[in-house]
């Protein structure tokens, strides 16, 4: 989480780390996690669950398969940037492992909401990953604002969020992580202008509500 070490988070029970280049994920339903573009062709993966530290605690479970959206397009501003990952065994929910709350399909993300980004990404540009889960509050932008500020933001299935003036937000290692409003996951970290948080531009997230039907079909 670049340029900000707001505070360590110890109470998050649905965050997990995909153990390939530390791209993080969040628990969805039973033995499945949401994920995005970065590991489409990787076959040896595991997921770390039940801890807010990258290097201690928790349990590690192998990934058995994943389904990337058929219309994912990295050449078109990461259009349809979402996938479903299935792990190799069922989970037993506990005090440290719980499912994240997803939005309804009809839920619309309005501008001006306080949204919380959570992740283990770089603490500053070109810096180290955080060993402790971090969080930062951002503001959601309207589609019109995003179209004016970002080239390549035409997609109805995206959310923009950030901080006017920059200085806080997603960085390398935060990809696939959650954006939440009042405990509901509205977005998944997709992309942002580089270097991270150093420019006065919003960041782009996959809008979860747009893909609820697709998620349900692929976890059945």
UniProtKB/TrEMBL annotation:
<dbReference type="GO" id="GO:0006508">
    <property type="term" value="P:proteolysis"/>
</dbReference>
<comment type="similarity">
    <text>Belongs to the peptidase S1 family.</text>
</comment>
<dbReference type="InterPro" id="IPR050430">
    <property type="entry name" value="Peptidase_S1"/>
</dbReference>
<dbReference type="InterPro" id="IPR001254">
    <property type="entry name" value="Trypsin_dom"/>
</dbReference>
<dbReference type="GO" id="GO:0004252">
    <property type="term" value="F:serine-type endopeptidase activity"/>
</dbReference>
<dbReference type="GO" id="GO:0005576">
    <property type="term" value="C:extracellular region"/>
</dbReference>
<keyword id="KW-0720">Serine protease</keyword>
<keyword id="KW-0645">Protease</keyword>
<dbReference type="InterPro" id="IPR001314">
    <property type="entry name" value="Peptidase_S1A"/>
</dbReference>
<feature type="domain" description="Peptidase S1">
    <location>
        <begin position="1"/>
        <end position="220"/>
    </location>
</feature>
<keyword id="KW-0378">Hydrolase</keyword>
<dbReference type="InterPro" id="IPR033116">
    <property type="entry name" value="TRYPSIN_SER"/>
</dbReference>
<protein>
    <recommendedName>
        <fullName>Peptidase S1 domain-containing protein</fullName>
    </recommendedName>
</protein>
<dbReference type="Pfam" id="PF00089">
    <property type="entry name" value="Trypsin"/>
</dbReference>
<keyword id="KW-1015">Disulfide bond</keyword>
<dbReference type="InterPro" id="IPR009003">
    <property type="entry name" value="Peptidase_S1_PA"/>
</dbReference>
<dbReference type="InterPro" id="IPR043504">
    <property type="entry name" value="Peptidase_S1_PA_chymotrypsin"/>
</dbReference>
């Amino acid at each position: 989480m670049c340029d900000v070490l707001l505070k360590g988070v110890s109470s998050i029970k649905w965050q997990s780390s995909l153990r390939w280049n530390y791209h993080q994920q969040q628990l969805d339903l039973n033995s499945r996690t949401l994920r995005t573009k970065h590991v489409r062709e990787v076959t040896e993966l595991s997921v770390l669950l039940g801890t807010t530290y990258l290097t201690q605690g928790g349990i590690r479970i192998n990934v058995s398969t994943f389904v990337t959206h058929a219309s994912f397009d990295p050449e078109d501003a990461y259009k349809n940037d979402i996938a479903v990952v299935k792990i190799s065994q069922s989970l037993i929910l506990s005090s440290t492992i719980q499912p994240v709350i997803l939005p309804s399909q009809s839920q619309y993300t309005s501008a001006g909401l306080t949204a919380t980004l959570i992740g283990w990404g770089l603490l500053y540009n070109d810096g180290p990953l955080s060993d402790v889960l971090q969080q930062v509050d951002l503001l959601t932008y309207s589609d019109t604002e995003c179209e004016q500020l970002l080239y390549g933001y035409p997609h109805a299935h995206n959310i923009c969020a950030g901080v006017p003036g920059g200085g806080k937000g997603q960085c390398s290692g935060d990809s696939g992580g959650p954006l939440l409003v009042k405990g509901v996951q509205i977005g998944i970290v997709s992309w942002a202008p580089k270097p991270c948080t150093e420019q006065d531009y919003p960041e782009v997230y996959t809008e979860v509500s747009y893909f609820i039907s697709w998620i349900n079909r692929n976890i059945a």
